[in-house]
Amino acid sequence: MIRVSVVGAQGRMGASVVEAVEAADDMELSAKVGEQDDIASITPENTDVAVEFTVPSASLNNVLALVAQGVDVVVGTTGWTDAKLAQVTQALDNGPRAGQAVFIAPNFAISAVLADYFAAKAAPYFTSAEVIELHHPDKVDAPSGTAIHTAQAIAAARAAAGGEPMPDGTQGEAASRGQVIDGVHVHAVRLQGLNAHEEVLLGNTGEQLVIRADSFERSSFMPGVLLAVRTLAGGGHAGLTVGLDAFLDL
């Protein structure tokens, strides 16, 4: 049995992870850690993999603490920057246990991971690309980590193919074009009734390709979370890994 502890267990996603772990035949729930609980209670003696679903302001410190305690971590919290990732890598290099692993996923929904992958594959063949992400109004970050990851993947694919900068003739003080990430415009919608949705729009003269992924409820993320837990528990992925595509054999 894989022993799993959940950090952020009282949150919406954390509670869903607790239910998914308890329902899995090959896992057992070791600990549920909330905001007022001591994360130091999670150790290699009681936990094989910790799952961290909290908020961006707390996630880095949580992950660094777990690494220092010798625990492998699956992270679903968004808001990760290159500087934060570098701190995690350094912590792993200096960690107390050889072969320690941290996995961070911008999105655990298989549909979203595939949409991101397909967008990067298609991007070199189109003149223009934009990303629209749509979420519920309680989401704390905008744009979403998934949209940022998608934009970065599109930009990297276009750059590797020698693509020109995308055309954009927008002018004027009232112009609204969203956030620009590596040259890709990303637009965030926060609307009651939505859960987690993303559209990638790719265009050439006279044609358009739309790639869309929709997660209607939090249960859609659980197969990806459990896949990540099983993969880390199985070993062979020491260090920092970002993106569920690394575990999907794409």
UniProtKB/TrEMBL annotation:
Record key words, sorted: Amino-acid biosynthesis, Cytoplasm, Diaminopimelate biosynthesis, Lysine biosynthesis, NAD, NADP, Oxidoreductase
Positions contributing to NAD(+) binding: G8, A9, Q10, G11, R12, M13, G76, T77, T78, A105, P106, N107, F108
Molecular-function annotations in GO: 4-hydroxy-tetrahydrodipicolinate reductase; NAD binding; NADP binding; oxidoreductase activity, acting on CH or CH2 groups, NAD or NADP as acceptor
Domain Dihydrodipicolinate reductase C-terminal: 114-236
Pathway linked to the protein: Amino-acid biosynthesis; L-lysine biosynthesis via DAP pathway; (S)-tetrahydrodipicolinate from L-aspartate: step 4/4
Subcellular location(s) of the protein: Cytoplasm
Dihydrodipicolinate reductase N-terminal domain span: 2-108
Pfam families: DapB_C, DapB_N
Function: Catalyzes the conversion of 4-hydroxy-tetrahydrodipicolinate (HTPA) to tetrahydrodipicolinate.
Known partners and oligomeric status: Homotetramer.
Name of this chain's protein: 4-hydroxy-tetrahydrodipicolinate reductase
Organism: Bifidobacterium bohemicum DSM 22767
